Amino acid sequence: MKFLTFVEIDLRKIFPFLLGMYVIAIVGFQGIFAKLASNINGKIVQSAAESGTTLDEYLKTIDKMSFLSIIDSNPLPLVMLIFVGLALILFGFYLWYKEWFGASKRIYTLLSIKGSRFRIFTSKLVAFLFIFVTFYGIVLLNLFLSSFLVKFILPDQIIASDLVQNYILHSQLLPFVIPVSGGSLLFNIAFLIMMFSILSVFVLWDRSKRIWGMIGGFIFMGSTVAVFFYLNTLDLYTSEKTIVNWAFTLCVLAISTSFSHYLLKKKVSI
Q: DSSP character for 76?
């Protein structure tokens, strides 16, 4: 069986859930954003009435509205997206573990296919990355849709220009949801691969050694998490912290991937 066939099977399996979650992400974000913009519009109309001037005259006295003043001042839309992202992480972990737990016919089939077993690992990694790359795309799509929606809710003369671009460049909250630069995107991808590799060690060790494997997997995951948090408590300059995080990610990635390869090749049996 070709590697792309493995990937296709994994993507086909997760597609219905992803579609549902992305619909929730779009509808939920746009609904919350529309409510926030409507509240702002209502306050503007009320303030204009209280000032005793016409709405057009009052609009000339207020600052332009950007996504910074709408979303960052009330980040409920981004919080909703964060919960969607967490649900996707848990879903990816659940699928990976469920397939290897117990007497799964699918895993028996995969293990009995001729060729490198590491294709199982890499195909699921591709599916795992696909989930989050498309999630990043959904977040950006929401911002672009909101840039059109706001024009139907707020007066044109108070809407700032380049809403999406300025928000990506200047938002203090958006980086908590998606990477906003090439360097952070590259690190996020490496970090996601590391997370997947750590989980794979747990899953494969559990499969090969049962109770002792589960204990060993928990210890491995717990130790890497503890080291990561310890490194991020160190009082370092930003450049130093970036180097430390990259070094940690690449080292753990190399160790966990190598260990997963060893377990798949030598320890995991049908």
A: H
